[in-house]
Structure formats: C-alpha cells, structure tokens
Amino acid sequence: MAHDTATLEARSWAHWTTPAWATVDGLETAYRREGEGEPLLFLHGAGLTRMWQPLYARLAESFDTIVPEHPGFGDTAMPEWLDGIDDLVLHYDAFLDGLGVERVHLVGHSLGAWIAASLALTYPRRFASLTLMAPIGLRVPEAPPADPFRWSPEVALETLFSGVGERYAEYLEQAGEVEDTLHAYGESITFARLTWNPRYDVRLDRRLARVAAPTQVIGFADDRFVPAAHPRRWAELISGATHVELEGVGDEPASHLAVVQQPDRIAELIAAHAHRNALA
C-alpha cells in the first residue's frame, strides 16, 4: 500500500512524528520506534494516537521502544477481520515476528493493557516483563467502570483528565476541529467493536493464571474511568504481581491519562520493573 508521504510530512501538531510501516498479514501497520537497549513494546489505549508522547521519549532513553498503532487507530486502517481482542493478540504476535523481535518487555495502558495481558497469557514465554496501567477488561461487579459510550466530548475530557483537561490541549488538537472529530469518531467505532458487548472478558479470571512474565499493575489514584478496584483485581489474578497506586502531585490529579500528566514518574516505574527482569 502506498502512503501519502507528502500529507504525513506536512503534519505539524504537537508531538507528531512520521511513522514507520510494517505489513502484518496484509495490513499496513503504523508504528514508531526509537531508542537503544532491550526491546519494549508499548500498547496504547483508545486514543492519544498519531504522536510520539513524552512518556515514549523517556522510555527510549533506556529501551528500544516500539509503539504501534492498533488496527483501526491512528494511521492504521480498520481491517474487515477485526472482531475482538483475540484478533489483536494474533496481530501483535505477527507484528513482532515481522520486526524480528523474539522477546520483549510489554507495557499496556487501558485498552492496551487488556491487549497486553491477553498477549502475555497466550504467549507466556515471549515477554520478559509486563506492566499494566489502568487496565480495563475485567468484570468487577461492585465497582463498574464509567461508560465511555455515553460521554459527550466535554464529559470525556472532564472524566479522562479528572477535571484538568484544559491543560492538555496540545494532546487533543491535531489537524483541526472537524478532522479531529472525524478521527476520534473513527477510533471510537474500533473501540466499540472491541469492547461494546461485553465490556469485559470473564475468561480472564481463569486465564490470567497463565501469565508467566513478572508483572506490575499501576492504578491511578484519581481515575474517574477505571475504579481503583480494577487494577487491584488484576494484581490479585496474576501470580506474583505487584500493585502500585500512583498519586497526584500538587493540584495535578493522577487521572486515567496520567501517562500524559506524569511521564517521568511512570517511565521510572516501567524502567525499574523491566531492569529487574532483564532479558539476559
């Protein structure tokens, strides 16, 4: 597939970098890769695509950091075959094979954490360490997550940044209001295809016992989307997993998008865990 190089190079929004491309079972998959060291695969949540975030840059100081855009997100097209998380598990196994990367450290945020955990339980010997941040995908009846499919754009901003979204316009304003709205709508369709019904996978309660990689689960103290009971439950179900709850700093809450708010602190947590579980 030919890419419109001129269009990509003309983009100028904050944190934009031109992606590389990998053909994965016929799907042209956009990804960014920087840094040296042991490879680290970062799986993003249901947004904040088409950019190289400060968190990724911090991780690239210590790791060969690989950040693909999921099918149906960013500049990776929505394939007809995408039906659920299992399809993404197979996609990312083939993606790593295509890059010639055998074992990696694996990190996921929100939706990306669900995908990462599913990868780690399906291919338990492929991952040297696993970090899950604000993960979704478990059924926790006493503490259901907020319903993102009911949010207006204003409510989404308020919820995801825990009331301080106006401070992060540079992460939300890209090609312009109309184009940004259409892009967000397209990604929401993919998110719905993956998580609409059900919003969780009850099989994870049993299957997470297959995860062999040393795991840390990070929750965010002021997360208005994913209740604190969820990361704790993930840590309970994965043998030997540790649980960390990241607090806010000053008047800055630790929201669901703390990956944007506290990149340095989160990079330190990820790096320390990965270094304790080096590939060698």
Report the C-alpha radius of gyration, rounded.
Answer: 17 Å
Output the number of helix runs. 10
**Uncertain residue ranges:** none
CATH architectural type: 3-Layer(aba) Sandwich
**CATH-derived topology:** Rossmann fold
Question: What is the number of independent domains?
Answer: 1
**Care to count the β-strands?**
8
Distance between the termini: 37 Å
Strand content: 15-25%
Round the mean pLDDT to the nearest integer and report it: 96
Give your account of this protein's structure:
The protein has 280 residues and is α/β, with parallel strands linked by helices. The chain has a single domain, classed as 3-Layer(aba) Sandwich (Rossmann fold). Helix content is 35%, strand content 17%. It has ten helices and eight strands. It has an eight-stranded mixed beta sheet with strand order 1-2-4-3-5-6-7-8, sandwiched between helices. Strand 5, helix 4 and strand 6 form a beta-alpha-beta unit. Helix 3 packs across helix 4. The relative contact order is 0.16. The model has no long low-confidence stretch (mean pLDDT 96).
Describe, in short, the structure shown.
Helix content is 35%, strand content 17%. It is of the alpha/beta class and 280 residues long.
Outline the fold blueprint.
Layout lengths: L4 H6 L9 E5 L2 E8 L4 E5 L10 H6 L4 E5 L16 H15 L4 E6 L1 H12 L4 E7 L19 H8 L16 H19 L8 H4 L7 E6 L8 H9 L4 E5 L11 H4 L1 H14 L4
Parallel strand pairs: 3-4, 3-5, 5-6, 6-7, 7-8
Antiparallel strand pairs: 1-2, 2-4
Helix pairs in contact: 3-4
GO molecular function, one term: catalytic activity
Protein name: Pimeloyl-ACP methyl ester carboxylesterase
Pfam families: Abhydrolase_6
